[in-house]
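## retry 2 of 3
previous attempt timed out at serialization; input unchanged, resubmitting
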Amino acid sequence: MIAILFVGAFVSLLNETLLNVALPSIMKEFNASASAVQWLSTGYMLVNGILIPASAFFIQKFTNRKLFIFAMTLFTAGTLLASLAPSLNVLLLARMIQASGSAMMMPLLMNVMLVSFPIERRGAAMGIFGLVMITAPAIGPTLSGWLIEHYSWRTLFDVVLPFAAITLLLAFFKLKNITPQRPIKLDILSLVLSSIGFGGLLYGFSSAGEKGWDSLLVYGPIIVGVLSLILFITRQLRLDEPLLEFRIYRYPMFALSSAISVVISMAMFSAMLLMPIYVQTLRGISPLHSGLLMLPGALVMGIMSPITGKLFDKFGARMLAVTGLSITILTTYMFSQLTLETSYGYLMMIYTLRMFGMSMVMMPVMTNGLNQLPPNMNPHGTAMNNTLQQVSGAVGSALLVTIMQNKTESEAKRLAEEAMQNLSSTVQPNAAQLSEMKTQLMNEAILHGINFSFSISVGIATVALILSLFLKRSQPAQEATRQQ
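## retry succeeded, writing output
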């Protein structure tokens, strides 16, 4: 049964990053602009951000069998429609349908794991879960890069479809109900406020890199999102049956693990975002080889997740988190010292080592926090973790891209002024030499921007390391009631 849930979660997570490399091909086929095609990724993420906070309600209201079959049906239908899509609008609709199924998968799987395994075996179980959570999105760009180079972008959906259909078929015959249900009502206003709040934040921060912070389409959604979230949290604290229970932050280890996870998510996105810019823009390496550079890191993370889970059961989260974050900080610092001649092999080695460090942190820290929650709070804990991961990823991406762009601009200006001073005292270059000089100066400016962003990422990871020193092994609290 766990295997069925794992495969379902794997294909839905794989689908999140599978399409990114294919966007230029889709633009060409449908004769669409980059901003229009970008909605295939942004829209998918937004639907996830809106539905994941509501997953706590769905998990408590419906049986895990019904919920998984419904989610997998939506995902499979969306995948089939995307494969046959005659226009960009139909493809966008298909992606939204896919996302509405995918959003339920991770919280549902985490909740089933917490119910299925006793606390002393949860680390090993969540380690296998980490294999799915980490490996699928990491493999996506490499797999799609290879498929796009040899086949049509529709092949990306054709590859996923059989796995989704077989998983759905197996779920009908093999899936059993193990999660407890209770008769709760959906508070519509909470759902609306949550959707506007998390959706606004995700859209605003995700658009910041492309549109700039002074755009109304960036700061507008962020302001509306923050105000909606304030109203949403206030309402949840007053309701007897909240959509998302914020009182789980009364449990210190959950609150601490949540803070560490947010900081790690922000730091993790630095390499996932900045590496492709460095490798493809500055070094001219193809998207396929750019994906291959990151593949060993993804494989190491996948191999390490089950091992890390068993180590967590034996030693607890603190030792793993401190070791993993120390490796992450060291390798991130090494990335902040890149040059225009850094070798491909060196980049691959440092990236792989960085992923090895991160594999020791994410799942042990998250599992340690969830272990302190009483059983009836598990759906809220998993929903909160998944939601915060989405939001912190978007915030971290926007922050690091903005820092990179600002540093690139200031560095380009400084280098240009220096070049002009040197030119005034030497022979004037011809047009070809000027063009070459501009390209070289711009590349150096971008490199400075990337290195500076990695330096900021070192600082972010150091915050997580300091917080991890306060981790203690968790034991489940007593069943929580609203009056406590």
